[in-house]
Amino acid sequence: MKYYELVVTALIKDDILIKGVQESIGRYLNESMLLDEELKSLHEKRTLKNYVFSGFYPIEKTKIYKAGNIYVLRVRSLQQSFLKKLERCMKMNKLGRMHVIAVEHKTYVNKMIDSVYTVNPVIVTVNNRPWMQDDDVDLFMRRLEDNAEKKLKALLHEEVNHYHFIEGIEFTNLNPVPTSYKGITLLGHKVRVKVKSDKDSQKLAHVILGAGLGEKGSSIGSGFCLANFI
Questions:
Q1: What's the average pLDDT block by block, 10 residues per block, for the chain (230 residues)?
Q2: Which residues does 25 contact at the CB level (< 8 Å), separation at least 6?
Q3: How high is the pLDDT of residue 133?
Q4: What count of other Cβ atoms lies within 10 Å of the Cβ of residue 79?
Q5: Is 25 helix (H, G, I), strand (E, B) or coil?
Q6: Burial class (CB in 10 A: 0-12, 13-18, 19+), 46
Q7: Residue range(s) defining the domain that contains residue 21
Q8: Is the same domain home to 14 and 82?
Q9: Cβ contacts of 14 within 8 Å, gap of 6 or more
Q10: What integer pLDDT is reported at residue 227 of this predicted model?
Q11: Do 210 and 166 fall within a single domain?
C-alpha cells in the first residue's frame, strides 16, 4: 500500500481565525481544482473524495494566522496523479487566500503501522447529530471502520467485508473540538487508534492516512492523521 503527500509552503494574504482555518484551506483547494477540467468534475460529484489535508504549521498561539506570514500544510491522497494535478492548479491560483511558494512530494510505501492519531479532530455523525463521548463507543468505532472500507472500495476498488481493524481507541480531548463550516459549528474528537497487525487492517490504516479518518476529510481536513510506525 502507498499513500502520497504534498508538503506545501505558502504565504497567506488575509488574517484567518484558527476556528475557520480548515474551511479556508478547503475552500482554497476547491477553488484551485476548478482550474482543471478533470479535477473540477471530481469536485462537483457527490462522492467520496480522494484527499485530506492538515492545518497550518506552526500553530499560532494567538489563534490568528497572520496575513503576510508563511505557513506549511500537508495534502494527502491515495492517488499520486491527483496530487500532481492539484499542485499545478494551486500554483495557477493567483486569486485565492494563499500564495504557494514551494511544494515537496513525499511517498509512503508499505510501512507497518502500530497506531494513528488525529491532528485534526475526527467527525462522526449519528442520525444527523454529532457523536459525543457519552454515546456508544462501539458504534463510533464501527462508523470509523465502515467509512474506511467505503473509501477503500471507492478510491482503490478493493474490498474487505465488515472488517474490524481497530484494536483499541483512546480519546485525547476532554471536550468536543469545534470547527467552522458553512456557517455552522461541527464538533469532533481527537483520538489515538491502535491498529491490528494483519494485512487487511494495515491496508485500511493506510487508507486512513491517505484519505482521512471519518467524515469531512476533503471539506475541512477532518481526521487528518499521523502514524506511529513499527
A1: 96 95 97 95 84 97 96 98 97 94 96 96 92 90 95 91 89 92 93 96 96 96 96
A2: 53, 55, 56, 73, 98, 220, 221
A3: 84
A4: 17
A5: helix
A6: exposed
A7: 2-109
A8: yes
A9: 67, 97
A10: 97
A11: yes
